[in-house]
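From: lab user (bench 3)
To: helpdesk
Subject: output format question, protein + iron/sulfur cluster

Hello, I'm new to running complex predictions and I'm not sure whether the block I got back is the full result or only part of it. Here's what I submitted:
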Amino acid sequence: MNYKINELFETIQGEGSFTGQPSIFIRLQGCPVGCSWCDTKHTWDISVDDQVTPASMLTKTEETSHWANFSPKDILALVNEKKFNAKHIVITGGEPCMVDLTPLCQLFEQQGYSTQIETSGTYEIITTDKCWVTVSPKINMRGGYKILSTAMARANEIKHPVATDQHIDELKALLAEHKVKDTAIYLQPISQKKRATDLAIATCIANNWRLSVQVHKYIGIE
Ligand SMILES: C[S@@+](CC[C@H](N)C(=O)[O-])C[C@H]1O[C@@H](n2cnc3c(N)ncnc32)[C@H](O)[C@@H]1O
Ligand SMILES: Nc1nc2[nH]cc(C(=O)O)c2c(=O)[nH]1
Ligand code: SF4
Ligand SMILES: [Mg+2]
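Helpdesk reply: Thanks, we reran it on our side. This is the complete output you should expect:
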């Protein structure tokens, strides 16, 4: 199985409970969910015209919609060749759960890596049991997708982007509707806006939830 990869890089996880963890990010191309404030809009469209060679994808200097096909073995070979030190893999996008992530996670787990997926909860999550699943539920977005109960039940953490009271109300309604385990809930201010951050702080304190502030954006790393 091949994966359409937009970016592959080593950095520090800036969000959720793994914040601070050196991580290898695999960013897959494609997402139809349509969040108006999405910070990776260049990953939305999958166009055959945007397919490039692996070498060309790896030498990008700016965010583009270009992607390249990689098998799990190709990805592992590349990670070894680049001598990345991180032992934690984060698969994001785009929407990574549009495809079966089992072969990719399985191969890295066999090599001693831990794995994590960042997903919107709108697609069935197909991965290994060990994989840490971060569901960042996307409610009432333009694409018209619904949050799946199976995604909410599988979530190891829920990380909700917020800017308005409506976002908080939508999250509370979602939590009332779906069974979740004893899952940590994070609020993530949208786009580092002061009002969004103030709202997230107050709501976290009021509900005993956690704050996730996209640390990488404050310190200027990828
Ligand atoms: C770009 S998405 C890709 C993975 C998947 N499609 C999803 O939405 O979870 C990665 C994470 O960034 C968050 N995110 C995207 N744009 C954001 C923004 N402008 N401010 C805060 N968080 C944002 C998403 O909610 C998600 O948790
Ligand atoms: N450093 C860093 N941490 C992240 N956590 C989730 C990210 C994502 O785009 O999914 C992300 C990202 O793009 N960079
Ligand atoms: S689901 Fe994720 S990648 Fe897709 S538009 Fe929303 S934030 Fe962006
Ligand atoms: Mg990001």
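A quick orientation on your result: The beta strands are 3-12, 22-28, 68-70, 88-92, 114-119, 132-135, 157-162, 184-189, 210-211. Let us know if anything else is unclear.
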